Amino acid sequence: MSILMWLLVGLVAGALAKVIMPGPDKGGWIMTIVLGIVGAFVGGFVGNLLGIGSAQATGFNVETILTAVGGAIIVLFLFRTFSK
Asked: Which segments does the entry list as coiled coil (predicted)?
């Protein structure tokens, strides 16, 4: 169940990351949403390591969304940096 929840949260996180970090991306919205899903997993992992988040997505609450958006911003930044 947790993986399915992170996928759903990742869809939202990808869209929010695109709003927070606007700009041209290769792949458009589809790639941003995929990066959001990857970022949700990264955010959950990093948050769990730092003790500020949980690797378990418990639903659409503030902690889960912020963790996923933080991870999505990191992944989107790295994607933009290395795709040039």
From this structure: none
Is residue 43 a contact partner of residue 70, using CB atoms and an 8 Å limit? yes
Supply the pTM of this predicted model: 0.78
What integer is the mean pLDDT of 71-77? 87
SS3 81: helix
d(CA 79, CA 24): 12
User: What does the CA dihedral 44, 20, 30, 50 come to, rounded to 10 degrees?
Assistant: -10
CA–CA gap between residue 15 and residue 81 (Å, rounded): 19
> Could you report the per-residue pLDDT of 2-26, keeping only the tens digit for each?
677 777 888 888 888 888 888 777 7
CA distance 29 to 83: 16
Tell me the chain's radius of gyration from C-alpha atoms. Answer: 12
